[in-house]
Write a structure and sequence with these properties.
The structure holds 2 protein chains of 2 kinds. By secondary structure, chain A is an alpha/beta fold. Chain A is 32% helix and 24% strand. Chain A has 8 helices and 10 strands. Chain A has helices spanning 61-68, 91-101, 117-127, 136-143, 159-171, 189-202, 216-219, 242-256, and strands at residues 19-28, 35-45, 50-54, 76-81, 84-85, 102-105, 177-181, 208-212, 224-229, 232-238. In chain A, strands 6-7-8-3-9-10 form a 6-stranded mixed beta sheet, sandwiched between helices. A 4-stranded antiparallel beta sheet of chain A has the order 2-1-4-5, with helices on one face. In chain A, a hairpin with a 2-residue loop joins strand 4 and strand 5 (84-85). The termini of chain A are far apart. In chain B, strands 5, 6, 7, 8, 9, 10 and 11 form a 7-stranded mixed beta sheet that branches. Chain B has a 6-stranded mixed beta sheet with strand order 21-16-15-22-14-23. Chain B has a 4-stranded antiparallel beta sheet with strand order 4-12-1-13, with helices on one face. The two termini of chain B are 23 Å apart. In chain B, strand 5 (107-110) and strand 6 (118-121) form a beta hairpin. Chain B is 52% helix and 18% strand. Chain B is built from 24 helices and 23 strands. By secondary structure, chain B is α+β, with helices and mostly antiparallel strands. Classes of the chains: A alpha/beta, B alpha+beta.
C-alpha cells in the first residue's frame, strides 16, 4: 500500500481541533412524535487522529456524524470545521466546503451505478469544475489497490471493492477530515481489514478520520473511541483494544437496560 | 455537468426511452407539418387559365374596414369567397383602347361525364394553350366544346344543367389543355347563361405595344371602379380556387394535431422525468454529498433531458423528412387536402421542428430539475417508501388555477356556431387535465380506499397489499395514473364535447324546418336553377316551394369585418319553417332592399350595412328580428331577388315544399329530376346528411386523437416499466416473507387495475365537467340540448389503457421475479 502523493494543506494551527462540536442538539419531528437524537453533545476531534464513535442503536452516532459533516443542520449548537463555523453557511457554500474539505463514506450505496469506477472517483473534482490531472485518478485507485478495475461499473465489483472505490473517491480531493458511517458493515473480515488499514494510514498524512461503527474489532484500529448513549457522550477510551471496547460496550448496554 | 449528464443518460438509456420516443414523434409530426406548409404555400403559382393576355381585369374580392386617423390608421381586410362582376360600362370603355379584349363569362354549367362546372365563351379558349382531340369550334348557338377527358364525341347530344334550367347541346369538338377543365359555347350563349355577368376582362397588347403601357392605360381607365387590374403571376388571383376551403381545413387539422401532440409530449416528458427524479432520490443525495451544488443537480437533470432531446430531434427530423411526401399525398387522396398538397425537403422547417423538440424536452424536465436541486444530501441514507410533501403549495396553486381558468372558456365555447370554434374544447380539456393531474395526490388516497373496499374484506393478502401500496406510495400512484387520466380524459372530452355540440346544432336545425318534403341537388350538382324551382312550384299538389341557399356576408364589428352567414330565402319562408321571430314579419322579406337579422345588432326598421359574398356593400332595411339562438346567431336572411346580381352561381341549395293533403309525389319528382334534383322526406334527408357529417367529423377526430393516444399509450407503458423496475427490493422482501411469485404478480396486477381505474374515473370526471359546462352554456341558445357521449369508442380506449397498464407492469415484474429473491434484494435499483 503506497502513501498518498503530497500532504494535505491544513489552514488550522496544530492546537485547533479538526472538528469541534459545542452543545449540539438534534431533534427530529415535532410535538408528541419528536425524537431527540442528540442532547447537548460537546466533542473535539484533534487533527491527524482516528476516532471511532460507538454506542447502542438509537444512541445518535449516525446523527452525530451527519451533523459534523454538514449533511444535516443541528437544531441548536455550533459545529466548526478547522475553525470555520458551519451554521450560517448557504447551501451552495456548504456544498463547496464539503467538496473541498470533507470525504464521506457510507455503509452502502456509495457509488453512482451508471458511472465507471474511474468516473466515480473523479466526480468531486469534476463537480468542482476541474479536470483531473493525468493519472491523478489512477493513482488514487492504485492507493486502494484497484487500478486494474478502473473501467468497471459498480455492478461488476464486489462489495469490498465498491467500498474501496468509495474511499478512493472520498480521498481524491485530499480532504482534511474523512467521515465513515459503518464502512465495514457489509464486508467480510478480509475486505474489512483492508479498508480499516487504509483509513488508519490516513493519519500518517495528518488527515483526520471519524468512523461510526458497532464492531469492537474495527474500533480497535482507532486512536480513541467516543461512546454515545441516549444522545449524549457517555465516555472515552484511549488506545483501545477489541476486548476493552467490547467490555465498555457491554457495560453501556447493561446500564441502559431497564430489566 | 453536461458531460456527466451524457454518461448518466447513456446508462439510463432504457428509462429515457419513453421521453425519447414521445419527443421524436412530436418532432416528426412538426417536421411533416412545416415541410408540407412550406412546400405548398411557398410554391410559386402561375396562372393556368389566363396564360396569354398581359392584363386581366377582375372584380374586387376584398372587404376592408379602416378605423382611426392619422398615425392610428388601421385597416383590417378580408378576402371574400366570390368576386364582384366587372361593370359593363368599364368593359365598353376598355374595348375602345384598341387592344385585343376578351370578355370571359363563367356561368354555371354541369353535365354528367363532363369535367368542369362553368360555361365560357369560345374566344376564352384563346387565353390559354390547347390542342384539338376531335372536331372543331362551335359555329351555331346550340353547339358546345368540351375539355378532355370527356366521354362524348363530336355530334353527340349532352344535357347540361345551367342557371337557366336544363339545356340540350350538341358537341362540336373536344380539346385538351393544361388549363382548368370547362365547357365552351358561342359568345352569345355563354353571355346569356351567365345573365350578362362578366367574370373577367382579358387584354392582350397590340403588336409593337409593350404590356407595361397597356397596363398603365387600363389602370387609368379603371380608377374608381370596384375592380382589380392584374398582371404577371397576380393574374392567377382572377382564376377560381376551388381548393381554398379545403386547404384551410387541412391546415387547421394539421395545426390542431400538432398542438395536441406538443402538449401530450410535454406531459409525457414531464411525467417520466418527475418520476425518475423521485426514484433516483438516493443517487441525487449521494451526488449532493460528494459535492454537487443544487444548481449542479438541476443541470444534471436538464442535461439528461437535453441529451434525450438532441437524439430525439435528430431521429424525429429524419423520420419526418421521409414521411412528409407520402403523407401529403395520402391526405390529398383521402380528400382532406387539396390535390396539389405536396412536400419536398427544405432546410428551415426541419431545423425549426428540431428546435421545438429540444424545447419540449427541456420544458418537460424543468419542474423535475428544480425538484432535483432540492434533494438534501442526507436523503441518500434514507429508504422512505412513504411519500411526504407530495402536495407543495405550488402544486395546489397550479391545480386550482388550471381548473379555474377553464371556467370562462366554457362561456366562450357555448357561443360557438361552427366546428372551428368548437375546437375550443381542446384547450379547455388540456386545462382540466392539468388541473386534475396536479391535484391527483389529494384525490388518489380516498379513491384508492374506495375502489378496494371490497378487496379489504377478503382475507387474501394481495388485495390488502395492493390497497396499502396505492394509498401510501402516492407519488408513484399519481405518476402512473396520470397518463391514463390524460388519454381517457382528452378522448372523452373531445369526443363527447363535439358530439354534444353537433347533435344540439342538428336538433336545432331539424326543429326549424316544418316542410314535410324537400328537394336537393343530386350527384355532384352545385344547386337547382330558378327554372327548376318554378317547374316544381307549377306541379300539381304543390302549395309552396321555397328555395334557399347559403352565402357568406361580412358585418363590421369594432374595426374588423366579421364573417357571418347569409341565407337567401324565397318568399313564403314562414310557411315552411319555424323561425323564432321576435319583431316584424318574415313576409316582408321581399325585393332587394330588405333583411332579417338576429337580435342584438340592429333593431326593426333600422338600416343594416353589410357586404355581400362578392364584397359588394349593401344597405338593407330590417323587416324582421329573430331571437339570438345557436343556429340564428350571426346569420341574416336575405331576399331571393338580391341574389342574382351578386353571385356567379345563382342556384338554390335546397327547396322546401308544402303539399296539398293527399297530393301525389310523382309529378313533383319528375319536375325535380328534370332539373337535376332529388325529392326526399325532410326528416330522412336531414338524418342522412347528419350521419354523413358525423362520419366526416369522426374521421377528423380520430386523425387528431389517434396520434395523441399513441403518445399517451407510450407514457403509460414507460411510467409503469420504470415504476415496477424500481420496486425490486420491495418485491424481494415480499418473496422472502413467503409470497409465491404468482401472488406477487397478482398484487401487481391488482395495482395496475386500480391505477387504471382511478385514472379512468378522474377522466370521466373531466368529461362530465366538460359536458355539463357545455350544456349550461348551450341551454339558452338552443331549443333543446342533446347530450351525446360515445360510450363505445370511449370504453374501448379505457380498455386499451388497462391492457397496456397490465402488460407494462406484469412483464417487467415477472422478469424480475425470475431472479432469486436474495439477488433481487441486494442489487442496485
Amino acid at each position: 500500500m503506497s502513501q498518498s502523493a503530497a500532504p494535505p494543506v491544513l489552514e488550522s494551527r496544530d492546537s485547533e481541533p479538526a472538528v469541534a462540536l459545542r452543545a449540539v442538539t438534534k431533534v427530529y419531528g415535532s410535538g408528541g412524535g419528536a425524537v431527540t437524537a442528540l442532547r447537548e453533545v460537546t466533542a473535539d476531534f484533534a487533527p491527524g487522529t482516528f476516532t471511532a464513535v460507538m454506542g447502542p442503536s438509537g444512541s445518535g452516532k449516525s446523527t452525530l456524524l451527519q451533523c459534523a459533516a454538514g449533511l444535516d443542520q443541528p437544531t441548536s449548537g455550533e459545529i466548526r470545521l478547522a475553525g470555520q463555523a458551519l451554521g450560517g453557511l448557504s447551501e451552495a457554500k456548504l456544498t463547496r466546503l464539503r467538496r473541498d474539505r470533507i470525504g464521506f463514506v457510507f455503509q452502502s450505496f456509495n457509488l453512482l451505478p451508471s458511472l465507471t469506477a474511474e468516473l466515480n472517483v473523479a466526480l468531486p473534482l469534476r463537480l468542482a469544475g476541474r479536470r483531473p490531472a493525468k493519472g491523478e485518478v489512477r493513482d488514487m485507485l492504485a492507493v486502494v489497490g484497484l487500478a486494474d478495475r478502473a473501467r468497471h461499473r459498480p455492478s461488476e465489483l464486489s462489495g469490498g471493492q465498491q467500498q474501496r472505490v468509495a474511499i478512493a473517491r472520498a480521498l481524491v480531493t485530499r480532504p482534511s477530515v474523512v467521515f465513515a458511517d459503518e464502512p465495514t458493515g457489509m464486508l467480510d473480515s478480509a475486505a474489512g481489514r483492508e479498508v480499516l488499514g487504509l483509513l488508519r494510514g490516513l493519519t500518517g498524512s495528518r488527515q483526520t478520520v471519524v468512523m461510526v461503527t458497532h464492531d469492537p474489532v474495527a474500533a480497535a484500529y482507532a486512536d480513541r473511541v467516543l461512546f454515545l448513549a441516549d444522545g449524549q457522550v457517555a465516555g472515552e477510551l484511549r488506545d483501545p483494544t477489541a476486548q476493552s471496547v467490547a467490555a465498555r460496550m457491554t457495560g453501556l448496554e447493561l446500564a441502559g437496560d431497564p430489566s | 455537468m453536461i458531460a456527466l449528464a451524457w454518461h448518466t443518460a447513456r446508462a439510463r438509456g432504457a428509462s429515457l426511452a419513453g421521453s425519447f420516443i414521445a419527443t421524436a414523434l412530436g418532432v416528426a409530426l412538426l417536421t411533416v407539418m412545416t415541410l408540407i406548409l412550406a412546400s405548398t404555400i411557398g410554391a410559386p403559382s402561375h396562372p393556368r387559365w389566363f396564360t396569354k393576355p398581359a392584363v386581366v381585369v377582375a372584380g374586387d374580392n376584398s372587404v376592408s374596414v379602416t378605423t382611426g386617423s392619422g398615425d392610428d390608421r388601421e385597416t383590417s381586410a378580408v378576402t371574400t369567397s366570390e368576386a364582384r362582376a366587372v361593370p359593363a360600362a368599364l368593359a365598353r370603355h376598355l374595348g375602345g383602347l384598341g387592344a385585343t379584349m376578351v370578355a370571359d363569362y363563367a356561368g354555371y354549367a354541369s353535365a354528367a361525364g363532363v369535367p368542369g362546372s362553368t360555361m365560357h365563351p369560345w374566344p376564352a379558349a384563346a387565353l390559354h394553350d390547347y390542342t384539338w382531340v376531335s372536331g372543331g369550334p362551335p359555329r351555331r348557338a346550340g353547339q358546345l366544346v368540351l375539355t378532355a377527358p370527356a366521354r362524348f364525341r363530336p355530334g353527340d347530344e349532352v344535357m347540361v344543367q345551367t342557371a337557366a334550367g336544363p339545356r340540350r347541346f350538341t358537341v362540336s369538338g373536344v380539346i385538351r389543355t393544361a388549363a382548368p377543365a370547362a365547357m365552351y359555347a358561342s359568345n352569345a350563349v355563354a353571355a346569356g347563361l351567365a345573365h350578362g355577368r362578366i367574370d373577367a376582362l382579358a387584354l392582350t397588347a397590340r403588336p409593337g405595344e409593350s404590356p407595361g403601357t397597356l397596363a398603365t392605360q387600363v389602370r387609368a381607365a379603371a380608377r374608381g371602379e370596384p375592380v382589380r387590374v392584374l398582371t404577371g403571376d397576380q393574374r392567377r388571383a382572377a382564376e377560381p380556387d376551388p381548393d381554398a376551403d379545403l386547404f384551410a381545413v387541412a391546415v387547421s387539422l394539421l395545426g390542431v394535431t400538432s398542438g395536441l401532440a406538443g402538449f401530450v409530449a410535454i406531459f409525457v416528458v414531464a411525467g417520466t422525468f418527475a418520476y425518475a427524479v423521485a426514484a433516483r432520490r438516493r443517487e441525487l443525495g449521494l451526488l449532493r454529498t460528494v459535492g454537487a451544488t443544487p444548481r449542479q443537480a438541476r443541470r444534471l437533470v436538464l442535461g439528461e433531458a437535453l441529451a434525450a432531446g438532441v437524439a430525439a430531434a435528430l431521429a424525429g427530423g429524419a423520420l419526418g423528412i421521409v414521411i412528409a411526401g407520402p403523407f401529403a399525398r395520402w391526405l390529398a387522396r383521402a380528400g382532406f387536402a387539396p390535390h396539389d398538397f405536396t412536400a419536398h425537403f427544405i432546410l428551415w422547417p426541419v431545423v425549426a421542428a428540431a428546435g421545438a423538440g429540444l424545447l419540449i424536452a427541456l420544458a418537460g424536465a424543468f419542474v423535475a430539475a428544480r425538484r432535483a436541486g432540492r434533494v438534501r444530501p442526507a436523503e441518500a441514507l434514507r429508504e422512505a417508501a412513504v411519500d411526504h410533501g407530495t402536495m407543495p403549495l405550488t402544486r395546489w396553486v397550479a391545480g386550482l388555477a388550471a381548473l379555474g381558468g377553464s371556467v370562462p372558456l366554457f362561456g366562450v365555447l357555448a357561443g360557438a356556431h361552427s366546428l372551428d370554434q368548437a375546437a375550443l374544447i381542446l384547450p379547455i380539456t388540456m386545462l382540466l387535465v392539468v388541473g386534475f393531474a396536479m391535484l391527483a395526490p389529494v384525490l388518489i388516497p380516498p379513491l384508492a380506499w374506495l375502489f378496494t373496499a371490497p378487496l379489504a374484506a377478503a382475507p387474501a393478502a394481495t388485495g390488502m397489499l395492493a390497497r396499502r401500496n396505492a394509498m401510501t406510495a402516492v407519488r408513484r400512484t399519481a405518476a402512473t395514473a396520470a397518463p391514463v387520466l390524460v388519454t381517457v380524459g382528452i378522448a372523452g372530452s373531445l369526443m363527447a364535447g363535439t358530439a354534444t355540440l353537433i347533435a344540439t346544432q342538428q336538433a336545432a336545425a331539424r326543429t326549424r324546418i316544418s316542410a314535410p318534403v324537400m328537394i336537393t341537388p343530386s350527384g355532384g350538382a352545385a344547386g337547382l336553377a330558378d327554372a327548376t324551382v318554378a317547374a316544381v312550384r307549377a306541379a300539381p299538389g304543390v302549395t309552396a316551394a321555397v328555395p334557399v341557399t347559403n352565402t357568406t356576408v361580412y358585418v363590421r364589428s369594432a374595426g374588423d369585418p366579421d364573417e357571418w352567414t347569409g341565407q337567401y330565402a324565397g318568399p313564403g319562408l314562414s310557411g315552411v319553417t319555424h323561425l323564432p321571430v321576435v319583431a316584424g314579419r318574415l313576409a316582408d322579406l321581399t325585393g332587394t332592399g330588405t333583411v332579417a337579422v338576429p337580435a342584438g345588432t340592429w333593431r326593426l326598421g333600422q338600416t343594416a350595412s353589410l357586404w355581400l359574398g362578392d364584397s359588394a356593400p349593401v344597405h338593407l332595411r330590417v323587416v324582421a328580428v329573430l331571437a339570438d339562438q345557436i343556429d340564428t346567431e350571426q346569420t341574416v336572411l336575405l331576399p331571393w331577388a338580391l341574389r342574382d346580381a351578386h353571385t356567379a352561381t345563382p342556384l338554390a341549395s335546397a327547396v322546401y315544399l308544402r303539399l296539398a293533403p293527399g297530393a301525389g309525389l310523382a309529378a313533383v319528382r319528375r319536375a325535380a329530376a328534370a332539373g337535376g334534383g332529388n325529392l326526399s322526406g325532410t326528416a330522412s334527408y336531414l338524418s342522412a346528411s347528419d350521419a354523413q357529417n358525423n362520419r366526416d367529423n369522426n374521421l377528423a377526430l380520430i386523425a387528431v386523437l389517434g396520434l395523441a393516444l399513441v403518445y399517451t399509450g407510450i407514457a403509460i407503458a414507460n411510467t409503469l416499466v420504470m415504476a415496477t423496475a424500481s420496486r425490486n427490493r420491495e418485491l424481494a422482501t415480499l418473496r422472502l416473507s413467503g409470497a409465491a411469485p404468482g401472488q406477487v404478480l397478482r398484487m401487481i396486477g391488482v395495482e395496475a387495475l386500480l391505477v387504471s381505474g382511478i385514472g379512468t374515473l378522474l377522466a370521466a370526471g373531466i368529461t362530465a365537467v366538460t359536458v355539463i359546462g357545455l350544456r349550461h352554456g348551450l341551454a339558452p341558445l338552443a331549443p333543446s340540448v342533446r347530450v351525446v357521449v360515445p360510450w363505445l369508442p370511449l370504453g374501448g380506449i379505457a380498455l386499451a389503457c388497462l391492457v397496456v397498464a397490465l402488460l407494462a407492469s406484469l412483464i417487467p415484474a415477472s422478469l424480475a421475479l425470475r431472479r432469486p429473491p436474495l439477488e433481487l434484494a441486494g442489487g442496485y435499483e
